[in-house]
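User: I'm writing a tutorial on reading structure tokens. Could you give me a worked example: one chain, its sequence, then its tokens, then a sentence or two explaining what the tokens reveal?
Assistant: Sure. Here is the example chain.
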Amino acid sequence: MLKPLLIAWDQWNAKQHVTFERADEMSTVLRGEFEARIEAIEARMDARIAAMGERLDAYVIRAEERDKRLDERLEERDKRLEERDKRLDERDKRIELIAQQVAAAAKSASNLKAHMWLATTTIVIAVSGTVVAAYYAAQPSHLGITQAVISAFQQGQQTQNPLREQGSGG
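And here are its predicted structure tokens:
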């Protein structure tokens, strides 16, 4: 199991152009060198993590500022929508009032129309009644006048007959 790992390590080092097989170079890695190398890697990783942390902190700060601005905009929008809704409610109430007034006016107009016809009918009946009453009221006076004229005529005839009798007799 260890042998495949060593072969993989050798292949990796071969790719990195590092060979440990030459006698003039070190063939074994010393513990201090290995630890120094690991510490260097850890330092680079710590620096990367710190940089990522700083970037993440900056992002979080920007995100919080953006969220605050968004909340402010949403609050302003909500206020505008509430004001608009209030205006629309008031407008709806006015429209309902106007509709009620229009319905009352239409009812009043139909009542007015009925009253106009009723008044016209009453006037026609009153005029007809007046004409009929005038006819019947005038009829007795006509009869009275006619009778007065006839009796005057008859009296005049009677008065002339004695005068004729006196004038022819004497």
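What the tokens reveal: The chain has two helices and no strands. Residues 8-129 form one domain.
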